[in-house]
Amino acid sequence: MSGGIARGRLAEERKAWRKNHPHGWRPAITVKQILVGIQDLLDQPNPADPAQTDGYHLFIQEPIEYKKRVRQQARQYPSLV
Q: Of 2, 4, 55, 81, which residue is most buried, by most CB within 10 angstroms?
């Protein structure tokens, strides 16, 4: 498909979207809410649904060591902001 045809189809889709959604697209949640959610997950992981089994076992069996490693990782990979 040529670039002109693709752009034309995208333009048609945008027009249809605007017609059906007159106020335009709006996110259901904000970036701040996403970041706070991530922070909450890091502060209080859900042990009923672990994403990483090693971290889960450490969190459950040795919470002091878990916190120590989290702090170590934070120092090793500081924020770029």
A: 55
Contact indicator for 52, 40 with CB cutoff of 8 Å: no
Q: What is the pLDDT of residues 25-43, one digit of tens each?
A: 666 778 888 888 888 877 8
Please report the domains of the chain, with CATH numbers, ordered by start residue: 8-76 (3.10.110.10)
Does 61 score more than 50 pLDDT?
yes
Rounded distance, CA 37 to CA 42, Å?
Answer: 9
Length of the chain: 81
Q: What angle do CA 55, 56, 61 make, to 5 degrees?
A: 100
Contact 74, 39 (CB under 8 A): no
